[in-house]
Amino acid sequence: MDIIREPGKIEEESMRIIDEHLKGYSFTLQESQVVKRVIHATGDPTYAQIMVFSPGAVEKALLCLSQGKNLVTDVEMVRVGISKKNLTLLGGDSSCFIHHPSVIELAREGKITRASQAVKWAREQIEDNIMVVGNAPTALFTLLDLIKEEGFNPAFIVGVPVGFVGSREAKEELEKQDRVPFVTCRGIKGGSPVAVAVVNALLKLAVEKRGEG
User: Which CATH class is domain 50-209?
Assistant: First the structure.
């Protein structure tokens, strides 16, 4: 058996195979770049069936990134996977507050998840920036409650929490709202690798659009 060992050729062949799986779908060219990266990261072509973009989502995300907006993530696993090089080129930064001592204490007192408390605690950092939820449905539920009930206004949401409890429902609620542009995936699939793949695909597109890729 001939095994491809050169990194460039491995990726080239991977993308060729993924392109075959995307035939018949109506993604825009930019949306397809995001979906391809998700499939590449997960090894799961069925993401083509469940990825959802709000109208003009990619264009709005690229505008946000080009303006140097910051990213706030629900968990550290997402934050550390994001391309620091490309984010820095665009003038942005990334933060995660789930391990902040105040968040831990308040979550314990309120008997809620740290992911949920972190969204409440960091609302000023999230306002007019990009929230990335890759793990915790409670973080996404809290974010959506703030948007609905208190006029909270993040610039963009990547909402792909994973799990059997609350994940599907949180993403359904994200789809129902039309105030904040978003990228999500339906059902119980998702997770930190998906969130990272979405963000890194968007960052790559934004850097290329600026002519720095």
Answer: alpha beta
